[in-house]
Structure formats: C-alpha cells, structure tokens
Amino acid sequence: MLSESEEYVIRLLKLRILSLIDRYKQVTAVANALEMKQPTVSFHMKKMETEWGVKLFEPRAGKIFLTAAGKMLLPYASQINALYAEAETKLTEWRDNERTMLRIGCTDCAMASIAESDWFAAVNGLPNVQVSMTTDEEEMLYSRLQADRLDLVLCGQPPRDASRLQFEKLTASSLRLIVPADHPLTRQIELVPQDLYSYSFYDLTEYSVHELVAIWRDQLALKLKVNARYDSVEMIFRAVHAQGGLAVLPECALPDPAGRVAFLTLPGHSSQWSLYACWRMNFWNPALLRQVIGSIF
Known about the structure:
Pfam families: HTH_1, LysR_substrate. This is LysR family transcriptional regulator. One of its GO terms (molecular function) is transcription cis-regulatory region binding. Keywords: DNA-binding, Transcription, Transcription regulation. InterPro entries: LysR_HTH_N (IPR000847), LysR_subst-bd (IPR005119), WH-like_DNA-bd_sf (IPR036388), WH_DNA-bd_sf (IPR036390). The protein is α/β, with parallel strands linked by helices. The protein has three domains: 4-95, Winged helix-like DNA-binding domain superfamily/Winged helix DNA-binding domain (Arc Repressor Mutant, subunit A); 99-168 and 275-294, Periplasmic binding protein-like II (D-Maltodextrin-Binding Protein, domain 2), CATH 3.40.190; 175-271, Periplasmic binding protein-like II (D-Maltodextrin-Binding Protein, domain 2, 3-Layer(aba) Sandwich). It is built from ten helices and twelve strands. A hairpin with a 2-residue loop joins strand 1 and strand 2. Helix 1 crosses helix 2 and helix 1 packs across helix 3. The protein is elongated and about 85 Å long.
C-alpha cells in the first residue's frame, strides 16, 4: 500500500502524463520524455480513466488525443504542473543559495526612482535574501504578479483587479520639464507655456507617465510637437542631450546621474505621478515584503 506522500507523487505524475499526451499525442514520446517504460505510461492512463470514471484518451489515426473530458481537465493539469515546477525551482534556489529569492518587477520610471534612493544598499544588506529585478509595462507586471511569477511590483498605477492583491502608495512626485543642461530655458526666471512651442518633445511610453503628460498638454491649449517616444528614462536623457529637445518626467526619476540634462518647473497645471507597491495577499513572507517596501523611501 502506498504512503500518502507516494500517492501525491503518483497523482502529479498522472497529470503530467495528461499534459504530455496532449503535446506529443504518442505514448512512446511521453514515455521518453518521462524516462519511463511505455507500459508504465499506458497503465497510469488506464488507471486515471478507471479512478475518475470517464474516458480521457482516444486513439485516432495512430495517435492518442484527449477526449472532451480530457480537454476539460487539461487546464487544471497544466496549472498544477506549472505550480509544482515553480515550487521545485524555488526550493532548488533555496537549497543552492540558502537565500530567499525575491522577484521584483518595476516599470522603467519606478526603477529610475528607486535608483536615486538608498534602497539597493538596504536590500543588499538583508540577510539570506537574493533579489531578482526585471522591468516591463504596468499591465504585464500585474499579469505576472497574479500568475505568481513576481512577488512585488513597483509602478505608477494601482492594479485594476485587486481581488488577490494588496497595494500601497509610496510617494507622489511632481512632473518636471527636462532640458539639455546648457539650454537657454535654464536661464529664464519663470517659464510660460508659450516658451515651449518652438521645441520638439520626447515622450516616455510608460502608461502612467504618458497619461499625465497628455492631460498637461491638453490644458495648455497648445499643440506641442513630439519627435519620438522611448520606453526608458535613460533614452529620454540621451535624446534630450543629443538632439536639444525637451521632455516631461516625474521629479523622483531625477537627476540624471551623468549631468546631461537639467530639470525645470513645468509651466501650467499638472498632476503628480505616484509610485505604488503591490503584492499578493498570500505571499509566504509578509514581514520580508514590509521590510523591503519600507526601505524604498
């Protein structure tokens, strides 16, 4: 008689067989992928159908296909297999490094903002924690967070679907006009919207920033020329410096470490850009998250 732990291993194996049959449609190929004998795979396929009381597999033209019941079960099998693989990866990382891997996703503007703080030094000083950071658009980051592929998201907008998530506003930052360091506008005491009309602009594509800039432009009642759009703060700095154009960015993403650009008070009225932290409610180590989030500002 199998122990309870052995029973769970067999159940996971059956679900993996179901997923692999859908992929390869041949018992031999599934057996090779699992490094098992073909009769063993066939035995587990029949066992699944007997235990659940439904036909899951059907032979057609020399191949094996999932029945309607098998296709209904497939998404659940895929999710369970993916979760098990992720759990194995996390345990392997822990075993090899003896450190917790914390996966953080940021938009580019959020990354630039925390780069100007002491956050990196604070996180690197945490015992038994290894940080993995990646950048992406807000919606993609939230999708990965919901799918348990990230542990923490830092970006400029709260999640649209917060049913499984917690979020917190970390800071708010005014928008600033970005100009080349030696630009004539730096010598003006006070700017008015008409001062900007003759210059080209470079826009950051990040949604939360782009929306605020669009609102600011609308209330100016001036049509400002946009020469190019970039997905990184660094590329904005380079374009402004090299081409002599202007840009609008949150102040928290400044200053430029290389001193290529200056930032001025933005004429007209503009809303503040906010930085949010978001994480899953069921994250296994909430104390660690609070420590990481608390060290940002």
